[in-house]
């Protein structure tokens, strides 16, 4: 299993970014995928999750600003982030739970300047 995030960067408050998580090594369309984030000195927390059927859920702080989606043909999950705030600054990780194992990507840094 491999999860590779990309798309992070430095953006001003109010700006947008789209993160990608390219997956391989498993039957992609059978599994839910999550996006987590970890700010300096804080715990890693779930941001958004998408099921194999396309159902989504979000943590309250990003509802209405972030959208998670998946392209099963490309084995990729996206996180579209709009109206970014300085408190969104964190390393963002892609996550898979499969057969009682957990898999994480290497993370991509998102920095939002005020």
Task: Name the features.
114 residues, mainly beta, seven-stranded mixed beta sheet, four-stranded antiparallel beta sheet, globular
Characterise this structure.
The strands form 2 sheets. Strands 2, 4, 5, 6, 9, 10 and 11 form a 7-stranded mixed sheet that branches. The mean pLDDT is 97. With 114 residues, the protein is mostly beta strands. The protein has strands at 2-6, 9-12, 17-24, 33-38, 45-50, 56-58, 66-71, 76-81, 90-98, 101-104, 108-113.
Question: Can I get a quick summary?
Answer:
Helices cover 0% and strands 55% of the residues. It is mainly beta and 114 residues long.
Per-chain topology:
Elements: E1 2-6, E2 9-12, E3 17-24, E4 33-38, E5 45-50, E6 56-58, E7 66-71, E8 76-81, E9 90-98, E10 101-104, E11 108-113
Parallel strand pairs: 2-11
Antiparallel strand pairs: 1-3, 3-8, 4-5, 4-9, 5-6, 7-8, 9-10, 9-11
Average pLDDT:
97
User: How much is the radius of gyration in Å?
Assistant: 13 Å
Which shape, going by the Cα principal axes?
globular
Structural class: mainly beta
Distance between the first and last residues' Cα: 37 Å
How many extended strands? 11
Work out the helix count.
Answer: 0
Q: Main sheet, how many strands, which sense, barrel?
A: 7 strands, mixed
